[in-house]
Design brief:
mainly beta; Jelly Rolls; six-stranded antiparallel beta sheet; five-stranded antiparallel beta sheet; 44% strand; globular
Amino acid sequence: MSIEREDVLLDGVVVLRVQRFTDERGFFSEMIRTDILESYGIPTAFVQHNHSRSVQNVVRGLHGQLNPPMGKLIYVVRGSIKLVEVDIRQGSPTFGEHISIDVSDNNGRLVWVPAGFANGFRATSDVVDVVYACTALWNPQTEFCVNSCDADLGIDWGTADIIRSARDAAAPTLAELTSASVLLR
């Protein structure tokens, strides 16, 4: 199989490994094979594809969207990231817990993040290009942000010298979002 399941984390995040076919010219990989993704229970109706480029130590996120809920299939085409997913599903036994996954152009990881997670990453290489296929169109009215330095989350970004947008730096904590009933129950 050209895409193999490596792990399932927090009862929803699926880490896949993409097989590379290499020769003296370089490599070839199948990144999205609907038959294989469907066999792992991953939706394949992607309606928006995004590409972001970041320099080292940029932290993007933690972002999510409520309506419509958005799942993301994430991979790195150049460089490396520390991908962080926070469970924001109210009533989930792992609510507020996070996982971190090293994803790079070298390790062949492809990560499925279903709706119900706040998503973020830190660029761990000089430059990184991250591509993600989304199951819903971006809706700025229902997008939210959790502060990536929320002490209660205890995320170790691997450096104190992170670079964030003004919006991400001013984002509320998960407890503030929960008490304001911003998140779905």
